[in-house]
């Protein structure tokens, strides 16, 4: 543990006592309902507070982790040391003409709904993506043929030194399910999306169709991290897993979904270790059967329980 009263006092001076939680259970903040405790779980309300917390972590040599809304993430059972920063309070979405500015903690689903309300086209693909705006930029989220790089104009970030930067979309090196945000240690604070004028009924029809496809095919009745694996060139991950006879395969409380083989669900109070073990089992089985190594799309962070 990196808990000490001095660090706690500093954090509440930078934010407030309501925004700093000690030994917070992270399974309350992840879609998988997995994860141990964070030494400090901090929810700043302003960009300046984010900058100051980053600078505090640097000065105090404290471990520092950014946690979005935990939709594409597995936190290990031992939790996370130091400061875990969550930007859920930075969640405003504003529209100006054909441009939408959404803060990092806003849900990308809500951003697509804002676009619909203003008859703006381009974000329909995001109507079923459960992540935050910051997380969507982090991994260049996409679905049904669309992705963030198609509509992103610019972003405001905090760098590793606590500086505020405005970057164009081109500066993020957005590729299939990746960006340079993690490599550069950027913390996304807001994103500006450039959209096109459209017709409400046509935009809504597309979103309704995509929502139906998602709800009919994905195992939304159980906690999960969404699609576990990236699509391997020339294949579909779910089809390879299904053809390997792995649908329904269970380790502890974690199960390869019987509804969609590309998903692993927390069916019966799984631990993160069980979930991760099942990911490895799927990877090894598919590799042995088809010679294809499935690459994880989901990110794994934190410490094992025995550390």
Number of helices: 8
- Portion of residues in beta strands equals 25-35%
Q: Give the SSE order as H and E letters.
A: HEEHEEEEEHEHEEEEHEEHEHEEEHE
**Shape, please?**
globular
Our Rg estimate from Cα atoms comes to 20 Å
| CATH fold-level assignment of the largest domain | Uridine Diphospho-n-acetylenolpyruvylglucosamine Reductase, domain 3
User: How many domains is the backbone divided into?
Assistant: 3
Cofactor: FAD
GO molecular function: FAD binding; UDP-N-acetylmuramate dehydrogenase activity
Active site: 177, 227, 297
Subcellular location: Cytoplasm
Notes on the structure:
Its main location: cytoplasm. This is UDP-N-acetylenolpyruvoylglucosamine reductase. It is found in: Cytoplasm. The chain has about 300 residues and is an alpha+beta fold. The chain has three domains: about 5-85, Uridine Diphospho-n-acetylenolpyruvylglucosamine Reductase, domain 2 (2-Layer Sandwich), CATH 3.30.43; about 95-200, Uridine Diphospho-n-acetylenolpyruvylglucosamine Reductase, domain 3; about 220-300, UDP-N-acetylenolpyruvoylglucosamine reductase, C-terminal domain (Uridine Diphospho-n-acetylenolpyruvylglucosamine Reductase, domain 1, Alpha-Beta Complex), CATH 3.90.78. The protein is about 30% helix and about 25% strand. The chain has helices at about 5-15, 45-60, 110-115, 135-140, 180-185, 200-215, 235-245, 270-290; strands spanning about 20-25, 35-40, 65, 75, 80-85, 95, 100-105, 120, 140-145, 145, 150-160, 165-170, 185-195, 195, 225, 250, 255, 265, 300. The strands form six sheets. The chain has a five-stranded antiparallel β-sheet. It has a four-stranded mixed β-sheet with strand order 1-2-5-3. A hairpin with a 2-residue loop joins strand 16 (about 250) and strand 17 (about 255). The radius of gyration is 20 Å and the shape is globular. The mean pLDDT is about 95.
